[in-house]
Amino acid sequence: MAKGSCLCGKVTYEFTGEPLRTTLCHCYNCRRITGSAYSTNITVPEAAVTIHGQPRQFEFDSGQGPIFKISFCGDCSSTLWKESDAPGFKGYYLLQSGSLGPEADTFKPEGELFTPYRSKWLAPMDNLRQFEGTDVGA
After folding, report:
1. Amino acid 134: pLDDT
2. Grouped pLDDT means (10 residues each) for the chain, 138 residues
3. CA–CA distance from 69 to each of 58, 83, 90, 131, 135 (Å)?
4. Do 24 and 39 meet the contact criterion of CB atoms below 8 Å apart?
5. Where are any strands of DSSP class E within the chain?
6. CA-CA-CA-CA torsion sign (77, 98, 136, 120)
7. Is 9 left (phi over 0), alpha (psi -120 to 50) or beta?
8. What is the pTM of this model?
9. In the chain, which end has fewer C-beta atoms inside a 10 angstrom radius, N or C?
10. Helical spans, DSSP H, in 1-125
């Protein structure tokens, strides 16, 4: 079982089983959400996640089709996960790997999404599949 939390610890979660996939996303919205060059998304079935605490949520149009909801701590503002009812995302949480702390290192990324938006100073990561959008298959 893996456990994650916000920075202040008021919202925590845990999940069982193995993630469906782990991907890096270079879209501008994910960059804004994380305040970084990309987000690292660990995709797990919603049914495998137990949440403790009351996260706040913000909904936004990705500009690529799906509407996403971000869950974050209302006190420390740490982004914890994203979710969407769009095909390919429904029924899953996209956990933000930084909310796991050192446990995140056990979930090696398999691919990079929205590669045309990758920061120009950041090279493609070795041995990761490259996708121009989100179509990574099942």
Report:
1. 67
2. 96 96 91 91 96 95 80 96 90 95 90 91 90 64
3. 6, 5, 11, 22, 19
4. yes
5. 2-5, 12-15, 21-25, 39-45, 49-52, 56-61, 67-72, 79-84, 92-96, 111-113, 129-130
6. positive
7. left
8. 0.89
9. C
10. 28-34
Tally of residues, the chain: 138
**What is the pLDDT at residue 122?**
92
Answer yes or no: are the C-beta atoms of 104 and 3 closer than 8 Å: no
How far is the C-alpha of 74 from the C-alpha of 66, rounded, in Å? 24
Tell me the domain boundaries of the chain: 2-120
**Three-state SS across 26-41?**
CCHHHHHHHCCCCEEE
Give the whole-angstrom CA distance, residue 62 versus residue 55: 21
Nearest partner of 12 among 68, 69, 83, 95, judged by Cα:
95
CATH class of 2-120: mainly beta
